[in-house]
C-alpha cells in the first residue's frame, strides 16, 4: 500500500482525510478524542474496521488527556470518553467492539497505576490496528480462492485499505486474487451519495495497478445482464446471526440483481463485524444522515431548495441473497447461523 489510512505516531493519531480524495492526499493529526470523534462522524475516516481502529485510538488519546488523582475519577472520565465515541455512528458494530475491548483492557489492569493504564491502552490501540492488517490479508487469501482467473468483479462502496487499517476486506479479496497471479478486472459502482466507489475505490485500485471501470449505481444490472460481471464482492458494517448483512446503501439492490442474473454475491468482513446478539437484519440500527449529502455534491446544489429528502446510509441484504460470507477464520455458505456460530466458537 502506498498510503496509510490511520496510524499512531508521536502520541498523535494520523489519518488520511477521505473527504478530500481523490483530488488531494491530505493527512490530519489528532491529539484528543473529541477530534477523533468528529473525524468519525464527519466521514474523514469511514469503513467499519477503520472506524473500530479510530475508536480504539480515540480511547487511548482520551485516557492520555485525563487529569485525575484517583482511579475512581480516571475511570469515570474514561467512561465519558467511550460514550462520546460510541455516539458517533450507530451502524458499524466494529466501533462498539473496539470500545468494549478497550474498556475490558482498562478494567483488567485497574490494579495498576494510572500511568501504566494509559500506556497499556495505547499499546492495545496499536495492537488493534496491527491485527486488522493481518486479519484483512488472511481474509483476502480465503476469498481469493473463490475468484476465477480472468474474472470481472463488481464492488459497491469502498471496502479497501481506506476502510480498514490497510489492505481491505472486499478489496483485500481482489488484491489477494491479483497477488495469486489471477488476471482480474473490477467494476466499481460510484456509490451515491458520498461517491466512495468513484472517489475512493477507483483511486485505490488505480494506485495498485488493478484495472478498474467506474460505473454509476444504476448501471450494474445492465452489465450483469450482458454477462460482463462474474461475481460481486462487498464489505459489511454489521452481520446478524442469520447472515443478514448491513452495508452501504445500494448494496441490497446489487444483491437482488446478482440473484436475478445468477451471479455469486460474496460478503467479505472480519469476525469483529459479526453481531450474533441480533437474530436478523431487522434489528440492525440504520443511520440516517443529513439531507445536504443528497441535495449537494461538494457544495454544489443538485436539487430544488426545500425538497424533502431521506438519506439512510446503509441497507440490509437478506441472507438469502448472499452466496458466501468470507472471514479471516474461513468461508461460510448455506446455513449462516450455524456456520457463523462455529467460526466464533459458540
UniProtKB/TrEMBL annotation:
Pathway: Amino-acid biosynthesis; L-methionine biosynthesis via salvage pathway; L-methionine from S-methyl-5-thio-alpha-D-ribose 1-phosphate: step 1/6. It catalyses: 5-(methylsulfanyl)-alpha-D-ribose 1-phosphate = 5-(methylsulfanyl)-D-ribulose 1-phosphate. Keywords: Amino-acid biosynthesis, Isomerase, Methionine biosynthesis. GO terms for molecular function: S-methyl-5-thioribose-1-phosphate isomerase activity. InterPro entries: IF-2B-related, IF-M1Pi, IF_2B-like_C, Initiation_fac_2B_a/b/d, M1Pi_N, NagB/RpiA_transferase-like. GO terms for biological process: L-methionine salvage from methylthioadenosine. It is an enzyme of class 5 (isomerase). Substrate binds at residues 46-48, 89, 196, 247-248. The record marks 157 as: Transition state stabilizer. The active site is at 237 (proton donor). Its EC number is 5.3.1.23. It holds the Pfam family IF-2B. Catalyzes the interconversion of methylthioribose-1-phosphate (MTR-1-P) into methylthioribulose-1-phosphate (MTRu-1-P). Belongs to the EIF-2B alpha/beta/delta subunits family. MtnA subfamily. HAMAP family: Salvage_MtnA. This is Methylthioribose-1-phosphate isomerase. It comes from Geobacter argillaceus.
Amino acid at each position: 500500500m502506498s498510503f496509510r489510512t490511520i496510524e499512531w505516531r508521536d502520541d498523535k493519531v494520523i489519518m488520511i482525510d477521505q473527504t478530500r480524495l481523490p483530488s488531494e492526499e491530505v493527512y490530519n493529526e489528532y491529539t484528543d478524542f473529541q477530534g477523533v470523534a468528529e473525524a468519525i462522524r464527519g466521514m474523514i475516516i469511514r469503513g467499519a474496521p477503520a472506524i473500530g481502529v479510530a475508536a480504539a485510538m480515540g480511547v487511548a488519546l482520551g485516557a492520555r488527556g485525563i487529569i485525575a488523582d484517583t482511579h475512581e475519577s480516571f475511570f469515570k472520565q474514561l467512561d465519558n470518553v467511550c460514550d462520546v465515541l460510541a455516539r458517533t455512528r450507530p451502524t458499524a458494530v466494529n466501533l462498539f467492539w473496539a470500545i468494549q475491548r478497550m474498556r475490558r483492557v482498562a478494567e483488567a489492569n485497574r490494579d495498576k497505576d494510572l500511568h501504566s493504564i494509559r500506556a497499556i491502552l495505547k499499546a492495545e490501540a496499536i495492537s488493534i490496528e496491527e491485527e486488522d492488517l493481518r486479519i484483512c490479508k488472511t481474509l483476502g487469501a480465503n476469498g481469493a480462492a473463490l475468484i476465477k482467473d480472468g474474472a470481472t468483479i463488481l464492488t459497491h462502496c469502498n471496502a479497501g485499505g481506506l476502510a480498514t487499517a490497510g489492505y481491505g476486506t472486499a478489496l483485500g479479496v481482489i488484491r489477494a486474487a491479483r497477488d495469486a497471479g489471477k488476471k482480474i478486472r473490477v467494476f466499481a459502482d460510484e456509490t451515491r451519495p458520498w461517491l466512495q466507489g468513484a472517489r475512493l475505490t477507483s483511486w485505490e485500485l488505480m494506485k495498485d495497478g488493478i484495472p478498474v471501470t467506474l460505473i454509476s449505481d444504476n448501471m450494474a444490472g445492465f452489465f450483469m445482464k450482458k454477462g460482463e460481471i462474474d461475481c460481486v464482492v462487498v464489505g459489511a458494517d454489521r452481520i446478524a446471526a442469520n447472515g443478514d448483512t448491513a452495508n452501504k446503501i445500494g448494496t441490497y439492490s446489487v444483491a437482488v440483481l446478482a440473484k436475478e442474473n445468477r451471479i455469486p454475491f460474496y460478503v467479505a468482513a472480519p469476525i469483529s463485524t459479526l453481531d450474533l446478539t441480533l437474530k436478523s437484519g431487522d434489528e440492525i440500527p440504520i443511520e440516517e444522515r443529513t439531507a445536504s449529502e443528497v441535495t449537494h455534491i461538494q457544495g454544489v446544489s443538485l436539487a430544488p431548495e426545500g425538497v424533502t429528502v431521506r438519506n439512510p446510509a446503509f441497507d440490509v441484504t437478506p441472507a438469502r441473497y448472499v452466496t458466501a460470507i468470507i472471514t479471516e477464520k474461513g468461508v461460510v455458505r448455506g446455513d449462516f447461523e450455524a456456520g457463523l456460530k462455529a467460526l466464533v466458537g459458540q
